[in-house]
TrEMBL record:
It comes from Candidatus Enterousia excrementavium. This is YcgN family cysteine cluster protein. It comes from the Bacteria. InterPro entries: UCP006173.
Amino acid sequence: MSEKVTEEQIKQRIEQLATLDDAQWESLCKGCGVCCLLKHTRRQGIYYASVACNHLNLDTRKCDTYETRLKHRMTCNKVNVPVVLRSGLLPNSCGYVEYIYGPADKQIKPDFKKIIHEHAMVDTKTEPSDASVEPRRAKTLPGPWDFLIPESLQWCTRAVELRDKYDRFCNDVITRWAKKQNNR
């Protein structure tokens, strides 16, 4: 069990996170690949799906197009200060979240042997071959909601706390960070 981090320490670490240079920022990433899994929001919260972006190499858990990923995929979220502090999307064991809260009690390590790429979703649902099924019935295309990882609802509790409990404080930090980015 990790040592409890005080609220003051959390705020200091949030401030520090916003001052990191690119090399320091990249060094926090553990390369777990979890952020590249598709997500689906339900009333209960955010679920991860056992479906990865097509650009994620499932063996290395690295993006094949990392440097140009935002050009290839409009829905790719560049993990930056606002994503860490506002999205509630990153798992408790993400290096950026651990920078603020300290080590997670449990490391999130999905079985990547069971993860499929987005393009493979279409192949997972086929029309029934039963002759009693009406042939004009439309084929339903699967989505990430068909591949949810049930326990993933608990993966992001610390990121959700950042988003909700420290909302006003994080907004101030993000505003200062954004001004600094615009002046680069």
